[in-house]
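Shipment paperwork, digital attachment
Item: protein structure file
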Amino acid sequence: MLRPLKSLRISGFASLAAPLAAFVGASPHLGAQQEITISIDWKGPTINQISTGTGVRITEADLLNPGSGAPMVGVQPPPRIRYTGAVLGLIQYPSCVGHIPGVGCGIEVDAFSEGSDEKFRPSPMLPGRLWFSVDEFAIGAPAFIGFPQVATEGPIGDVSADLFTDAGLPPGPVPPGVILRASVGAIDGNGLTSATGFSYPGLGLVEPNPASPGALNPGDNIDALDIDGSQTFPAGGVYFSLDGAFLDVKAGVPNSGSAGANGANFRPGDVLRTATPGSLPTRYATASQLGLDAFGPGTDDVDGLILVENGDGVFQPSLGDYDWVGTPGPKDMLMFSVRRGSAVIGMPDSIFGLPIEPGDILVPPRGASTFPGIWIAAENLGLATRRETPALDAGDDVDALDFTKRPYYDCNKNGIEDSVDIAVGSSMDANGNGIPDECEDLKMRFCFCLADYAPCGNGGFYPGSNEGCRNSSGLGAMMVANGSTSVATDDMTLQLTQLPLNKPGIIIMSPNATTPMMFGDGVLCLTSPIYRYFGMNSGATGSMTFGPGLIGHANANFPPLGHVAPGSTFYFQGWFRDPPGPCGTGKNLTNAVRINFVQ
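Attachment content:
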């Protein structure tokens, strides 16, 4: 039986519907609904196609969103133009609209950022997601098979329109060989099943794009990337780089030369800023500040960009690890990759003294060196390098970069990209649809306390943690749902175990959930509106069981948004007092459970 004792008034849960945060996202597979912005190069077939919703023909200067609004499985419409090259202030743009693919027009945008990406932080594992793309010549470095990666999609020409993420990285700087190398395919170019059998949501681009020389490609290549940006033109402006004009040794043709075409002083190694829509761009970070162009103007080309601007619009280069966090006066966090053919490739980086590769993620020079430092070596992203295989004519090229706070697809709300869960084996995907199997079950446990999110080092490590944050018992509290999810039967129970002894606790319920956020000594994964059941006591066993009768109690006592009906989904989590707990807040939480209710 559900045994009410008394109502507990708890900070953050002071009412039956205490608002904590706005919920974003509704699909069981989609986490937070974040906007994806890309550009494509001048060689692919989407150039000169009419963009969805605008009627304007697409160019390599345009920043694009998926035509469907978000990546989808199956055939998608062409991308939608978010910002045209005119918005970026590119003077060549008006004369280039309508040009055919394979003919350069001097307007290619090579990298893009709104200046508000997530910061890299010195945590045990990265509390964020690194995203990147590669071009059609990437071959990857084979790791484990069984999931899409550069090494599986590259050889079949299905790689250049895809977006990849990391499989978990330690704090930087990260030299080669620190972790299991892996790149995990998460978002596809066209949303169709590849020849290797993998299928994941697509962007409305054209694939395949087999590696071959020449200026005209049969498929598209992503050239710039930004995820989770603002809905309007950012108050601080936008940041981007333009293309060099030196020879691409793989394609056998020169690059598009858009930097010089849009300003006599612009260099492909510069990062530019357009402050307001349509205003002429200015140089934000010069090539020399990034450790580039040591061998002459225009000899290096920025190809990918991650940027956290500190708010003053003036570039203050990082001089040491993590000087972009904290106060006073944090530096700007600017990370980048360089284009294949750049003169800096092969030069010793200023952190490890290793030869720089086109797949490395770099930071401005450190110490007395004039060359960039390697923040994340390409091998850790599952990319091929000449450092590892000297016989290669060139290493894999990182074409676009971004670092986000949240995963894009995170149905089990553990803060990890679903594709990574499947790739590392912490989630199964028996039907091969890219959705972890637990997300398709009627009952799913989630919101486990990982070290990244734990308030005071009281979490576990991915992928083994399956409980809440450690409490004074030395363990993390666990919640398990038993019984059916039938509304008519109403026999479901929620069992809480591994609690501190003789402490009061409650369960809370919400129709909305999100990725973990610190709360007390634990992590909270429910968002407003939150409804609280009456309390119990953990007693001498350190456990509580709520139910049967949970549905009836909710329908009799909660507002309409908290009423449980067949087809509804609700999320539950346990809260309990813990005065001697490790973080000193006196309260903690169990993991959470998602329930899909049936008739």
